[in-house]
Structures are given as structure tokens and as C-alpha cells.
Design goal:
By secondary structure, the chain is α/β, with parallel strands linked by helices. Helices cover 43% and strands 16% of the residues. The chain is built from ten helices and eight strands.
Length: 242
């Protein structure tokens, strides 16, 4: 058996767990998308997941994604969406905007403004997710809800004024739960993001603001129970990297 022959089977297991978690919480399993995290994995990993029905893929580093996805991979696999899920440095913004369909790690008002200021020339809407810091062991994200809401307010104002936001679309929020066996702490992290999401939807008119990207290989079932619409799965699909 080659390294990625079990990918389809692993994805089926993930889908089954998502369905179970969705039914437990009274949700439709179809409302939850799987994003396959392909960092440190070759093109073969992408192709194997694509063959099993996955269309969303995530990378942590611009340089690795550029090397992997800038060749034939995109043309060979129509319909894929590539998302940046790692920390985005300001000097990599231009490359990231050209390469990715979504950036899930918008972690500050400054970064949001920098992206929006460069977005008018975009030929397709770039999907943006604001990352909220909800775990002590995570170093990235907006530090609190006040800062998060201020960024959303600035974006909403730019929409009203038709300035700088034409090429981007704020579609949701993202977080990383704490790396702990304490389910209560993990669940609290996801609930915090969901509450922030609901408050934003209550306070602002944002067309297409519908996504909660939360949940990874070790906690995605909990995330689905707490309202996740997108889980970012690496190890559960591809196994551990040596």
C-alpha cells in the first residue's frame, strides 16, 4: 500500500464522525465542510483527497503552498479552493493574495487594512476570516472581542463607502482551541468564537458572513457540536508526519 492509499478511508471516517456530532447537536451534517491540511505533504496527498471528494485545502506557509500549487496541480484538479491557515507575514501579503482563495488567519486590524488596500485589482473575491485568540497556548489572533469587533466595524464602514473592500469578502471567523485533554476548555473556546460570530451578525450587515472555521483532528467532533461550519483536518486524514 502506498502512503496515501488509505486517504479515502480516513476521510470516510472523518465524515462519519462529523455526521454523528451533527446529529447529536441537531444539525445537518451537510452544513460542515472538510478542509484538508496538506502542509508538509506532497502533491500526491492533495490528489488523493481530491479523488475522495475534498475540494478545500489548507496550507500554513506561503512558500510551501506556492511551490506545491503553482504548477499543474490547480489545472489538473478543477474546483479546488486553497486557504491560508497559518500566520501571514506582512511581506508575504501580495503573494498570498495571488495564490490563495481564502485567508483564514487575518489576526489584526493592520493586516486586514493592508489586504483590503491591495484588493481592488483582484479578479476574484478573496475570502477573509478573522482569527480570534481563544486559547492561552495560541500566539495568534485578535486578542479579544473588542479588537475583533473594531476590525469588523472598519470593514463594514469600508463596504458602505465602497472603499478598499471591493476585492475581498469577509466570510467568517476562525480559531484554534487549546491543546488540552480538558474537553470543557476546548468546548469553551469554540463557544466563545460562536458567541462572537453571533454578535457580529447581530450588529453588522455583512453579506456572506456565514463561516465558523474551528476544529482540528483532535477536537473536530466537539467543534461540530458547537456550530463549526468548517473543520481543518490534517493528521486524521494523512496520519502523523515523521
Amino acid at each position: 500500500m502506498t502512503e496515501y492509499e488509505s486517504t479515502a478511508e480516513r476521510i470516510a471516517i472523518v465524515e462519519e464522525r462529523i455526521s454523528s456530532a451533527a446529529f447529536r447537536s441537531g444539525r445537518n451534517p451537510d452544513a460542515v465542510k472538510i478542509l484538508a491540511v496538506t502542509k508538509f505533504h506532497p502533491e500526491a496527498a492533495v490528489r488523493a483527497a481530491y479523488a475522495a471528494g475534498i475540494r478545500l485545502f489548507g496550507e500554513n506557509r506561503v512558500q510551501e503552498a506556492e511551490k506545491k500549487y503553482s504548477g499543474r496541480l490547480r489545472s489538473d484538479l478543477p474546483g479546488i479552493e486553497l486557504h491560508m491557515i497559518g500566520n501571514l507575514q506582512s511581506n508575504k501579503i501580495n503573494k498570498a493574495m495571488a495564490l490563495f482563495d481564502g485567508i483564514q488567519s487575518v489576526s489584526s486590524l493592520e493586516l486586514l487594512r493592508a489586504i483590503c488596500s491591495k484588493a481592488e485589482s483582484m479578479t476574484r473575491p478573496l475570502r477573509l476570516y478573522l482569527e480570534l485568540h481563544t486559547a492561552e497556548d495560541s500566539k495568534s489572533g485578535f486578542p479579544g472581542e473588542n479588537e475583533l469587533f473594531s476590525a469588523v466595524e472598519a470593514y463594514a464602514k469600508s463596504l458602505e463607502e465602497q472603499k478598499g473592500a471591493a476585492g475581498v469578502r469577509l466570510v467568517g471567523l476562525m480559531t484554534m482551541a487549546p491543546f488540552t485533554p480538558d474537553e470543557r476548555a476546548v468546548r469553551a473556546s469554540f463557544r466563545r468564537l460562536r458567541r462572537a460570530f453571533e454578535e457580529i451578525r447581530r450588529r453588522f450587515v455583512l453579506p456572506g458572513f456565514e463561516e465558523l472555521s474551528m476544529g482540528m483532528s483532535g477536537d473536530y467532533a466537539i467543534a461540530v457540536e458547537e456550530g463549526s461550519t468548517m473543520v481543518r483536518i490534517g493528521t486524521a486524514i494523512y496520519g502523523d508526519r515523521l
